[in-house]
């Protein structure tokens, strides 16, 4: 069956015999309007009968600072974590009558100011800013701790040269290695010389994310290396594809949806009781 058409402001106006402006005045409880109680009741009855729901974004834009939150998401930060974070953020904001707008792409001070000046949101935030204790960067230690626990002492970290959080991830991972008494991590930007790394004593690679880890596994196979026999490989972000590989990918799962909900309540100045995210969890599979 075709999906039922969503009722519009025009439909409500026609059903109640008034103008669209009058419907808008009633729904927004606009002051200084001489609308009779009978007309108001008729409009509200039409809204009920038609199941009319005001367009959230339009309402937020009209009300400006009280309803709209803007999230800036730069290229390179998309992934399972960001999708889950945005889902939790959006759901929690929606539950409290706020609307989330996500702006994808490179963010500069100029572009950020332009958007804020146009829509005048209640708040604006950048996804994955360094220093967020609940973000993916802070959990690099999960990878290093797990690999060390499996007996690996010479570990490389595969992070693209242009990765948005490259230096942050390397710093967190390096600190984790030092705390465990391991030799300094080897930063890895290319995957063309994995056999040489193995010959030099590297036994495990921690990927910046699952995508990089999966590329590492493919490169290892092309170079005649077995995973995990010759080289253990571990991802980060727990994407669905990792479980489908052979060998399946060991990775780290973060309760990103709870992080999103927590962020929403913090932005709105609400209590965060009962929203403590579950601890990061290593998903143990076959690759490491």
TrEMBL record:
The keyword Transcription applies. Signal peptide: none annotated. Keywords: DNA-binding, Transcription, Transcription regulation. The lineage of its organism: Bacteria, Bacillati, Actinomycetota, Actinomycetes, Micromonosporales. It holds the Pfam family Peripla_BP_3. Residues 7-63 form the HTH lacI-type domain. GO terms for molecular function: DNA-binding transcription factor activity; transcription cis-regulatory region binding. SUPFAM superfamilies: lambda repressor-like DNA-binding domains, Periplasmic binding protein-like I. This is DNA-binding transcriptional regulator, LacI/PurR family. It comes from the Bacteria. InterPro entries: HTH_LacI, LacI/GalR-like_sensor, Lambda_DNA-bd_dom_sf, Peripla_BP_I.
